[in-house]
Write a structure and sequence with these properties.
With 253 residues, this protein is α/β, with parallel strands linked by helices. Helix content is 45%, strand content 16%. Strands 1-2-3-4-5-6-7-8 form an eight-stranded parallel β-barrel, surrounded by six helices. The longest helix is centred in the last third of the chain and has 19 residues. The chain is globular, with a radius of gyration of 17 Å. The two termini are 16 Å apart. Bound molecules: 2-phosphoglycolic acid (PGA). 2-phosphoglycolic acid binds next to strand 8.
Length: 253
Amino acid sequence: MSRKKIVAGNWKMNKNIFEGKQLVNDILESGLELRDDQEVVIAPPFTSLELAASQLRDSKNIYLAAQNCHQEASGAYTGEVSAEMLKGIGVSYVIIGHSERRQYFGETDAILALKVDAVLKQDMKVIFCCGESLEIREAGTQNAYIQTQIENGLFHLDEATFKNIVIAYEPIWAIGTGLTASDDQAQEMHAHIRSLVAAKYGAAAADNTSILYGGSCKPSNAAGLFSCPDVDGGLIGGASLVAADFAGIIKAR
Ligand code: PGA
């Protein structure tokens, strides 16, 4: 198995440039010792990306992510940022399809598939988010729902390109709510996602795909979640805003 163990911090719309600089400093000083197969990813807002890139320049296995990009390369799209612009300042990953983007900004599966292509075209990697609402979980149809999100967003890719995809399973009912999927619920869905990848791209590709869990992951529950065989790390929101908590989760990995 050669898949990476990844802990990614999604700051969402938090931290001005000074606060962000301090948080990156604190993370760097928190004594992380990353093995070759471990990565840490930090996803600040656009305004902190360039400074964070310079702070991270000499650190091993710590990468920068953007939280979004536009699907077009350039043009009359006021307020948007292209994948090429992100690549230019040293971004390695872009988060695509976060539930907040889908819910509040109307990002459809079709738009997300175009965004995935735009990121890959710039030789960056995608952290592709999927996740069901509480209603879907209660109806018991979450597996089919996640399958549709993944098929529509990712399965137009060929096998060689799919290598640059990390999948984050983020049940919406667990994001920022303090509710966490149980270890069993996370493992069950991650195994389902891996089986979808295996059916489409083969067992080796599935084995090499990192699948992260997101949704109220914190130092106290990270070790349990990360001990599940198909959980390869986390996409962390709230707890990534406090260096000690984020470092605690990384150390649990
Ligand atoms: P949370 O957010 O850790 O605050 O629940 C996770 C995410 O949305 O990435």
